[in-house]
Every structure is written in structure tokens, then in C-alpha cells.
């Protein structure tokens, strides 16, 4: 809803706003799915199919690929969970 105050600048806002919203949703979905496929293609198949959650050297696969440190994924997971919990309070 960021650009709704700029709808007066459009020639045909009744057509442009819905098509822009759909285009943004579709392009975001394509990028999201492409990243998921590329991530899955970058990991060895036997590691992805381990049903016990263990990987090579008993480390998390995602943390091994993380930059600049393996702790980025662990801290990000906790912060994401904490942020979702804070949204439920309102």
C-alpha cells in the first residue's frame, strides 16, 4: 500500500494498480521459487534426504553455506521467530 498516494499520477489507475499488484506478486513468487530450486541444487542429494536431520560432520547444511559466518542462520532463525511472536501480541 506504499504507492497508493501516487495513484493520482497514473493515467489509468483502475487498470494500472491491479496489474501492478499482480505483476509484483508474480515476479516475487518466481524469484522465491527460483532461489529455492537453486539452493536445493547446490546441496548434495544424500544430505537432503537424511531423515534424522544429520548431515556431513553433524553440522547444519544451511549454516555451512551461510556468509559471513555459520551463526548468521542460527541467529536469524531465532530473531525471525521472536519477531513473529511479537506480532501476535498486538
UniProtKB/TrEMBL annotation:
InterPro entries documented for this protein: AA-permease/SLC12A_dom, SLC12A_fam
Keyword DNA repair: no
Transmembrane segments: 20-41
Phylogenetic classification of the source organism: Eukaryota, Metazoa, Ecdysozoa, Nematoda, Chromadorea
Single GO biological process annotation from the record: cell volume homeostasis
Membrane topology: Multi-pass membrane protein
Protein location: Membrane
Keyword check for Nucleus: no
Listed name of the protein: Amino acid permease/ SLC12A domain-containing protein
Pfam family for this entry, one: AA_permease
Domain Amino acid permease/ SLC12A: 3-49
Entry keyword set: Membrane, Transmembrane, Transmembrane helix
GO molecular function: potassium:chloride symporter activity
GO cellular component, one term: synapse
Organism: Cylicostephanus goldi
Superkingdom: Eukaryota
